[in-house]
Amino acid sequence: MSTRQDRGYRSLLLSELLKTFRKWRTYIGFIAIAVLVPVVQVGLKLEGGSIVNSVTRSLSGDFFFVGNLFNGYFVTHLIMNSLWVHIPFLISLVAGDELAGEATAGTFRLILTRPVSRSRILMTKYAATLLYTAALVIFLGALSTMLGVALFGAGDLIVVKDGLTVIPEGDVLPRLGIAFGLAVWSMWCVASLAFLLSSLVENPIGPIIGTMTIIIVFFVIGNIPVELFASIKPYLFTSYLTVWQEALRVPIDWQGVLQTCLRLLAFSIGFYLITWYIFTHKDILS
Predict the structure, then answer these.
(1) d(Cα 251, Cα 152) in Å, to the nearest integer?
(2) Average pLDDT in the 114-128 region?
(3) Which residue from 176, 193, 225, 239 has the least number of CB within 10 angstroms?
(4) CA 47 → CA 81, 92, 143, 270, distances in Å?
């Protein structure tokens, strides 16, 4: 019985994945990244590395820099920092459509005629959302790194944040792998929020706008140097979305990373449980 249920769940998940990847909006994020990353990297190639010069100029009196600092790893790190505000928007395009899109198309009644519970249907839709999110972030990481190394070569990675960190070339790829893994984890929290908002409305535009509005507002509140907002910051999930940056510190604070990941997990589970309650108690009229 358990094997039959597992097969049924896998079949349902495959069906949801096929449905997700048949929608044209699913590929907007991939197309945007496929266009934007090469454009940015070619622009940086033509610009000739003045960014690195500006970063190291103030430190040149104390340090002597040698080697290829303006390399593909540095460019990948630069792209992660500059594009990260936009990735949640690309994720919400799909996550916000998972439930609201069914309501707009009027296909919920047909879906619920399947001999499976609402909880299982919701779980498979959520799993499809998480898989899409992971695929998008991994695509960003793979394209940025491979194209960056092809255009700029490899070398040590310099990170200027709370001081200067230099990661040896041999350690950079494992560190970037960990960074993108943590990025997937943090973006799952964003996807969970968009998925929750998708259960509240019947138009996918609402969850997309709502997700971005919440993220922007929380980011602003979390970065204003006011004592009141500082006390609120630990309760905002946006305070933990940059956990991927911890992978580029020497040494990595694994305990801090674990605590941050657990907080993000708590937010994601909370968002999902609220979604589950709404979905399982909702009157489906179309």
Answers:
(1) 26
(2) 83
(3) 225
(4) 18, 33, 20, 45
Asked whether residue 183 is assigned to any structural domain, the reply reads yes
Count of structural domains within the chain: 1
Both tokens of 25, joined, read: 């909006």
Phi first, then psi: what are they for 119, rounded to 5°?
A: -60, -40
Q: What is the pLDDT of residue 187?
A: 96
Q: Using an 8 Å Cβ cutoff, are 166 and 231 in contact? A: no
Higher pLDDT: 147 or 250? It is: 147
The whole model's pTM is what?
A: 0.88
Q: What is the span of the domain harbouring residue 235?
A: 2-280
Q: Examine residue 148 and state whether it is found in any structural domain, yes or no.
A: yes
Q: Are 195 and 80 in contact (CB under 8 A)?
A: no
Confidence grade of residue 1 (pLDDT, cut at 50, 70, 90): very low
pLDDT (mean) for 170-179 = 94
The DSSP annotation for 244-270 comes to GGGGGSSS--HHHHHHHHHHHHHHHHH
| Contacts with 138 (C-beta within 8 Å, 6 or more apart), sequence order | 180, 184
Distance CA(20)–CA(123), nearest Å, equals 14
